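Why predict the complex rather than its parts? Because the way molecules touch one another can change local conformation, and only a joint prediction can capture that. The input here totals 1062 residues.
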Amino acid sequence: MSGLFRPPRIAGSMRLFHDITDILSLREIIGATNLRKRTPEEYRILRDIVTSFERYRGVGNDIQLTLQERAANEVIMCEKKREYQKGILDPSKFAPGRHIFQVLHKIRRSPLFNILTKMPKGGALKVHDTSLCSTDYLIQLMYKEHLWVCTIDEGCCVVEFRFAEQKPTKGLHPEGQWEPIEQLRERRGEENLNNYLRRRFSMYQKESFENNAEAWRHMMGIFDLLDGLIQYAPVWAEYYYQALKEFHADGVQYMEVRTTMPQLYCLDGQKLPVRETVQIYQDVMKLFRKDYPDFIGAKLIYAPLRHVQPEVVGQYVKQCTELNKEFPGFVIGFDLVGQEDVGHPLSQFVEELIKLPDNINFYFHAGQTNWYGSHVDENLIDAIMLGTKRIGHGYTITKHPLLMQLAKYMNIALEVCPVSNQVLQLGSDYRNHPAATLIAENVPLVICSGSPALWCASPLSHDFYMAFLGIAPMNADLKFLKRIAKNSIRYSALKDEAKAKAMEKWKKNWEAWIDDVVKNKDKTLQQTPAK
Amino acid sequence: MSGLFRPPRIAGSMRLFHDITDILSLREIIGATNLRKRTPEEYRILRDIVTSFERYRGVGNDIQLTLQERAANEVIMCEKKREYQKGILDPSKFAPGRHIFQVLHKIRRSPLFNILTKMPKGGALKVHDTSLCSTDYLIQLMYKEHLWVCTIDEGCCVVEFRFAEQKPTKGLHPEGQWEPIEQLRERRGEENLNNYLRRRFSMYQKESFENNAEAWRHMMGIFDLLDGLIQYAPVWAEYYYQALKEFHADGVQYMEVRTTMPQLYCLDGQKLPVRETVQIYQDVMKLFRKDYPDFIGAKLIYAPLRHVQPEVVGQYVKQCTELNKEFPGFVIGFDLVGQEDVGHPLSQFVEELIKLPDNINFYFHAGQTNWYGSHVDENLIDAIMLGTKRIGHGYTITKHPLLMQLAKYMNIALEVCPVSNQVLQLGSDYRNHPAATLIAENVPLVICSGSPALWCASPLSHDFYMAFLGIAPMNADLKFLKRIAKNSIRYSALKDEAKAKAMEKWKKNWEAWIDDVVKNKDKTLQQTPAK
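Output of the joint prediction:
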């Protein structure tokens, strides 16, 4: 032991630290010493080595901050510490220890959250196409012409919407009563109806769910309710433009949208071919990019429901191949969605899935469960073995050290969705989110939101806030945020040249934001934090 | 890729698997292949390699079961699967997904739990000495002679107990009123008072706590209430005998008890020197071993409170050194206890701690928090750097891959206390307990309970049940249980020869239990599981 400290090359702990970059050497040096026989000075040196090593490994520690970024970092860390101090004093005041339903509005008053809202976050790589726009916007749609509403329970429960010239005759509920929305509004009162619908469009309808299966059923019910409203072709276009607008306002410059690729309908009830759905997406994206030149673009991942037989997956694969041929560089990926726990595992579909041409990437949802060792958990194995480029959620991956190592080695990014995981009852306290281990182990990851509108959260900022304050270590700072933002471009489906251009666009906004944080330093620090 | 499957040595996946025993080689083989270009057959082989590799790494997979053990394993796994099936159908029916307060009694009706109750678990390595005995036993103590009770709020709130000839004059509460317990019983009614005290002696008094700080305050309050009752010298001896009896009945054959080493008092109020406390412990243990020859023994870990100045820790170290000299082989370890979040970090005490002679082991509590990157979290670093032999809780260690590797490499066992972590609000759903990662990574671990009496749990069986059903992977079986039981002897403070003898005693009970499980197979499987 004492010999370890004698040679001049290890006189300073930092010297030694830089010589040891892998965990194996370090554990051998420490493991080989008798830890009970040393001086306080030796102790401090060895301890410094370990803490430096840990700091060096975590996400973001490859980033070097500029002078201006350091100034911004001071502001950010000051606000972050303020929230910790409050939380340590009274843990019930620490937002990431609470359920989002209880703290959503409180978070909006947090100076740290407000800084994060303006932060250029790069891309939103995991979002589902019919849960993008705010409830406020959905309520606006209620005033569109030709909107019919179907109710059950003597008009008390809205179950479906439809745009049509004539009263619809068929619907999801045979016993439902169709009427023009104006009539229902008249009867129930405008404010009443809107408040009711606000609740119906979100997961807030219930304070808490008995279990994740119930939360899922509730969420799928919202999707069903939204379908008739959003899948009307003109609304579809408008909805998507609005989504891009809301995400862009939240610091998002690029999107990869998972879509079940529904057939849209017209006022006369006619259904359009699926290619029209894609065409609208592409037209709207181009229009938006014209209106907002700093926007990088958006792409689609075809992500139909997983609760089907292998033959159907075969048809999905064909459909995706065709759409990719018609929209190359736009329909770029494939996934399967819906509650994994009750769906079929990927392993059942392998023979069909490997037929997908390899210019189309897999971006599989996997391991969105807490049943360790179940076939759902094993989807992680199949996702990786099938060559997935990213993993949606991968909540259980920390229970699979080998898979975590493979993800790191093969550059597969985990799409971490903190708020979604809480609302769908995988976890409760953000401080226990498994992504902390991914951060420590420097496994590639991006922060995503999934279906933010369903929990009335910002497109991406609440997830960033929870990840930064609740999941990452206390000393995670601007380097962490910058790495996460850059990851969202690095692990996107953009090709090399486009990726470089995207990074340029992001960098421009990033620098402006940094200047803004520094400029508003005094204003920020003077704010009284939310109680 | 195709080359990979050509050479005869890797024709069968198992062959290849046995050649690759480390994660680095495996990730290189898989990482080097183009996963998008292979046949379904190649896919299956590679997938088998990965799943075998995972299975091979987990806790317990070094165990080979005998034929009789395999027969017992079938019964156990049948019951385990029955609980999973029910849980997957309706997750709210899955006990490890719920709070122990809600399912304590339901678990007692589970056939799986009943098998685990009888399982010889080896040693209980982490228990606190004043929270060992059941509430039923504490209520019995209420009928002892000379017991006085102190109440506040006009007799409504019991705050202290004391054995004395005369009415006590001083107490923790200056405003408190002392009276003989008989008088209070008379006034409030026997059943009422006992029911009230049952609640006061447990954490059940409140359905849930706002946060972990509140839960801790509540728990410390119970310890305060118990002190006057238990620290009466004659009761102390009786309490400890009863504790050994209850633990033994729960399948425990060995104990390492953490004690704050209180000075006991006599009927005249006189305080005994601390060595008397140890003497009583030793005498009782010897007596118990005589009465129950299959009992291996018990040892003490001196574990005073951590909320003190460094000088006081210096005194602790001296005290421990002296007691160890007087009771060698009985007072064998040192620790600091109390809520880590509000106590001082180990790093503040290093200079004092390294003075402890190295024949006394450290068994530090560390990382019993969810504040990642806090100084409490960093206690893990200091515990390991100080040469700790085991870590109490180590709840945050999975956020420190380096420390996890060090623990594995240096054979430091984690004392995992599932139920305690839930009650003290570190986690809610057992399926998210970080020990799952330790199990997957095969980090040394033992299952412990801490203060089971405070949550009315069995001495160790509820923790085993939660770990086996809720934390370990679905396919964890008797091999897992056997490894955990053996670990409790392997990572004990027993010396080599004593350890071998202990293992023999345990093995005898283990084999009898296995026979019993097999013999009762039909009876077990016919039971209707709890709804």
